[in-house]
Amino acid sequence: MTVTDTDVPADTRPWLRTERRGRVLRLTAGGEWIVRYAARLDPQLHAYDLGDANEVEIDGRAITRLDSAGAWLLVRTKRAVEESGKTVRAFTLPDIYSTLIHTIDQEHTAPPVVIVPRHTFSALLERLGRSTVHVLKQGYGMLGYLGRVTVEWAEAIYSPRGNLRVPALIHQVEEIGINALPIVGLLAFLIGIVLAYQGADQLRRFGAEIFTINLLGVGVLRELGGLVTAIIIAGRSGSAFTAQIGTMKVNEEIDAMQTIGINTVDALVLPRILGLIIALPFLTIYADVMAMVGGAVMCYFDLGITFPVFMRQLHEAISMNTFLVGVIKAPVFALIIGLVGCYEGLQVERNADSVGRLTTRSVVEAIFLIIVLDAGFSILFSILKI
Amino acid sequence: MSMSDKPAANREVVVRVRGLVNELGGNLIHDHVDLDLYRGEVLGVVGGSGSGKSVLLRSIVGLNRPREGSIEVFGQDISKLGERALHTVQVRWGVLFQEGALFSSQTVAENIQVPMREYMKMSEPLMNEIASMKLSMVGLPEDAARKYPSELSGGMKKRAGLARALALDPDLLFLDEPTAGLDPISANQFDELVHDLQKSLGLTVFMVTHDLDTLKATTDRIAVLVNRKIKVGTIDELRRDPDPWIQEYFSGVRGRAALAS
Q1: Domain A5-107 - what CATH class?
Q2: Inter-chain CB proximity B201 and A39 less than 8 Å
């Protein structure tokens, strides 16, 4: 909304008159010199012509109301005259405003502020440069952090009693693993259904419906089960790690722990990462089973394949290796989710948008790294011919 | 102080609170509270933690809808105003929140210009001049203009918040614990700043505070929130009040030290 002139009666509007008497220019001002009229007065005060006048009189005795914006316009005019080498012979205002004029004239000597525009090409380049440096710093920081966690880990293995916090670990396993069972189970079940349906639809054309089960078994056990579970847990637990640790950082709880002498990596990071490493493989196995159940249900209704037939075909389609290849990736994914989640949490600064921004970043980074690693695993396994 | 000598009947009431009832989480905070704020005065609002000082402020500026009662600002009942009518009241007041409440994605200069951009059709150069003047008025250095709120100290945030609150030259200024969290020197400077600005701009100030030095240095009258009611008077009047909390507040060690000086 903009406050317009029509909101107020006309007689309060400010006015400015210029008048020449020989070599004296007289500026007479009156009415309300307040902020809502500043935009109107500003061009008038830039426009008057000093000409060959060498003295200026500013007469504001008719001003009925003056605030700091109006006072600034008058002070600015006075200064402009003085700077151009002319003299201000008189600068008169009602007495009640003398303090205000005096304060502004005395206190304010700084130039106008500079607002740097945000949408120019150079600003774009600046942002690009900043984010490049940021990404490099981020990678460097993460590497250092991985080192620190590894050292703490070694110590925890060396003397588990001192460094490993068992109650915290059990709590994390419950939070990450058991509490995630409904959502992971449901999504895996649905993925089983979708995969079986699509597979059956395509393979039926070749009369090879039965191979739907092979597609389902290999697809889910090798890739999808682990990948989907890891992505769900990155969204569910990785974000929670960042938000929890970040909020503790904002509240200075992390600082409080450090001054008490609690090792924050031991107390906050290790239980979370270890909890993930324990929980994620089990969740993956559970997701595999649920997807098979979903697939079996779909095969029964869509293809009329009974459960014993399904089991026999599945047994032929997959080997122990297929299953292990899927599950072996889970601890690695867990490590990535945990590291990223906790690291980003510790990067939170003491301002309001920090927690939200870093939580988003933690999830995006974790999912990105999971998929990149999964591709890496595929290449590795194909080289090893597994 | 001279303002409070005049008879109340002749003075223009800027904020009029009548029969205000507020409840928070099932607890009665205000039980039919009445309060008048006169043009040109500085009113300090004190009370123990949880006595509803901030709730009172939030009710007046329309952030908290009271359960009962009416609140008039500049003669208009703010709970009954439509959006456009409320804007005409909002351009006449400025609010300084406890931590400054600066917009974190904008620089200090941009923060100060937010109300100008929203309500006035000013040219960019004029806005830049005025923002610079506001910075000088609140005693911030030139280079603060380009900084982001996260780069400022607590005291500087409050000054920047005050500059934003003053952006449209309001008639009425609300301050929520302006000196809390400042060191004594900064707090004294802030008191002087509020006092000087109030004098030169003729502001009406509603100030929630815990700070007895601030009360003594800046306020004309004090409103004490005690037992869900409000008691208003000058420091001297309140010191004679028999209420135990008020006695403890003004006559405790801190109170005596602040008032003796």
Answers
A1: alpha beta
A2: no
